Amino acid sequence: MRIRGFCCGWLEMDRAGLISGDEGTMRIPIPAYLIEHAGLTILFDAGLPPELRDSDSERAREIAPFFGCDLPPGTNLVERLRSCGIEPGDVDMVVLSHMHFDHVGGSSLVLDAELVVQRAEWEAAVADVAGDQYMRADVDVERPRRLLDGEWDIFGDGRVVVTVTVGHTAGHQSLRIITDDPRELILCGDACYLRRSLDTRSLPTSSFDASAQLAGLEWLDERERSGARLVFGHDPSQWPMDLADDRVIELTSIHADG
Ligand SMILES: [Zn+2]
To answer: What would be the CATH architecture of the domain defined by 2-253?
Structure first.
């Protein structure tokens, strides 16, 4: 099994949007993950929508009041995949932690891949016609998709398991992987933004279900104490933060200390 991660752009945002009560702004990485196992090529999350590179695009103007956006050449999903020797048509499946634009946006570049989303998340995104939480452009009802009602062991060998971590959104999910070492690796998604979120049990100003998200942090903490490595949703200490830095990280070597 090979697992690689890369930043599909960076956002500048209010710190309170990451941890309630914090002040100022923070530049955060927007990671996506490439997993190759047993003949399948899977993505976990897809990074920013490619249109955000053009600051005059409709989508860029939509997010501009809330986020500063950097998606330099070389960093959108397809460019990242090609730097890994993968063509967009090679991707079999995109497992989405949830359907916020910074996770689903790049999936428009791998249109043949099946989306894997919790049914509750898909339905929440479809129902949000006002676009309060989800961007309309990201809800493609024509898209091939597999809607899950809970856990899913993708290969049936226990190596890559989709696990429900509701709280941040209505149907958030994380990915539990057993690497070749063998060791447990959890791609948290936005179940946990930062190392500090876990250590201080801190939530952002708003979440779909705060008590469920706190329960998710308890679970992640318990897994880490049992030896799991955690990769947080947007922790700058785990990713290259330089715009010119085009590193792809082999996830088995990632710094889990934050
Ligand atoms: Zn996010």
So the answer is: 4-Layer Sandwich (3.60)
